[in-house]
Design a protein that fits this description.
single chain, 405 residues, mainly beta, 2 domains, 5-stranded antiparallel beta sheet, 6 helices, globular, F-box domain-containing protein, SCF_F-box_component, F-box-assoc_interact_dom, F-box_dom
Length: 405
């Protein structure tokens, strides 16, 4: 006697599937054509992303550079049952083999990668392992400059820095903004600097030049500097270089720059270090030094201290925030990664060491993203770039093999 086949309504099936990780949904693409096509609809993609946000399903990526071969890679951190973070897998970054790229985002589960020494940039979905390589820069040498100087100046360096990645809800478009610095030199070894700005549109897959705001930016932001489609940078004071200038903002929707007053609690560079960051959907500033660590967030222009961490022994550098507002730090002296819980004031050492990444100008950073099915119609990352076996398990396996031998 055959049991009757139990069938669930398709609406309920899609609701259940929208709560699964991307890796499972990728495997289920081959179940039937209806599932495959449903996973690519805007409604399902939005539903899946909303569920991940609601359940706080955050993923932690520590971008690093191997000190042995200088190859950039991501360490995917996994939270074990004992709440101890370890390196779950190691992901090498294709297309960025000669330098460690700057990482911007995450926006709807997407990250933007930018190599500062060249115009090489890409948008990456770490959940689907899909890349979109951005087109070459559209920046041209300023015509007014070359004509005024009558050809006495030579362009010797072009760098691409201070990028930001965000979403324009007005046009339903992802955009990348970056500042291009041009360095000229003449026969008398005199230098002249020009700054230009270009904006990338995901929809048109092209760059366009926009007017430069005329401010000197500092590269001090932690993980992500874009909140609700508005990007932020800290500038240098044009008169006193030891002091901080105003906060520069750029609205992705109207494509206009604006200026915000610098918070009163930020003093000179010599007194403390600080970073801009996106924290729980708000613009934040984290200050740190010998006196401790403070986190401030702003709402409608009013800055409020979120919490304070009293002075911690050792020189610690903030890496970023995790799932439950825990702060990840790096011991500069030993290279160890530590985890600080604001609620318990507990500081825990993790089984992660960044000693090989201990370069003066290359500090690891932590990036947090939510899994997403957003399609970027790019190319698939080669599987050989992903080492999925946990590093700790590999070492344990080797020890077991040695004992059995």
């Amino acid at each position: 006697m055959h049991r009757p086949r139990l069938e669930f309504p398709e609406v309920l099936v899609m609701e259940i599937l929208s709560k699964l990780p991307v890796r499972s949904l990728t495997r289920f693409n081959c179940v039937c054509k209806y599932w495959c096509s449903s996973f690519q609809t805007p409604h399902f993609i939005s539903k899946h992303h909303h569920n991940n946000l609601k359940n706080n399903n955050l993923n932690l990526l520590l971008i690093r550079c191997d000190g042995n071969n200088f190859q950039p890679y991501f360490s995917h951190l996994s939270n074990q049952k004992d709440k101890q973070y370890i390196v779950k897998q190691k992901i090498h970054l294709p297309f960025f083999k000669s330098a460690t790229p700057s990482v911007h985002g995450a926006c709807d589960g997407l990250l933007c990668l930018q190599e500062s020494s060249t115009d090489k940039a890409a948008i990456w979905n770490p959940s689907t392992r899909e890349f979109r390589i951005l087109p070459p820069s559209s920046i041209q040498c300023p015509p007014y400059f070359s004509s005024i100087q009558e050809g006495r100046w030579n362009l010797v360096e072009v760098s691409f820095r201070h990028a930001a990645f965000g979403f324009d809800s007005k046009t339903d478009d992802y955009k990348v903004i970056r500042f291009v610095a041009l360095t000229f030199i003449n026969s008398e070894d005199e230098h002249h600097f020009e700054s230009q700005v270009e904006l990338y549109s995901f929809r048109s897959d092209s760059w366009k030049e926009i007017p430069s705001p005329g401010y000197t930016l500092t590269h001090i932001f932690l993980g992500n500097n874009c909140v609700d489609g508005i990007c932020y940078w800290i500038t240098e004071c044009p008169v006193f270089h030891d002091f901080v200038g105003p906060i520069l903002s750029f609205d992705m929707a109207n494509e206009k720059f604006s200026i915000l007053s610098i918070p009163e609690f930020i003093g000179p560079f010599s007194e403390c270090c600080f970073n801009l960051l996106a924290f729980n959907g708000s613009l934040g500033v984290i200050t740190y030094g010998s006196k401790g660590i403070d986190l401030w967030i702003t709402s409608e222009g009013i800055w409020t201290k979120q919490y304070r961490i009293e002075s911690i022994s050792g020189a610690l550098w903030p890496l970023g925030f995790g799932k439950n507002d825990e702060l990840f730090l790096r011991n500069i002296g030993t290279g160890e990664v530590l985890q600080f819980h604001p609620s318990t004031q507990e500081l825990k050492k993790l089984e992660i060491n960044t000693y090989l990444d201990n370069f003066q100008y290359d500090t690891p950073l932590l990036h947090v993203y939510v899994e997403s099915l957003v399609r970027i119609t790019g190319i698939q990352e080669p599987k050989e770039h992903i080492i999925r076996q946990p590093i700790r398990d590999v070492s344990n396996k080797s020890k077991c093999e040695e004992r059995s031998a």
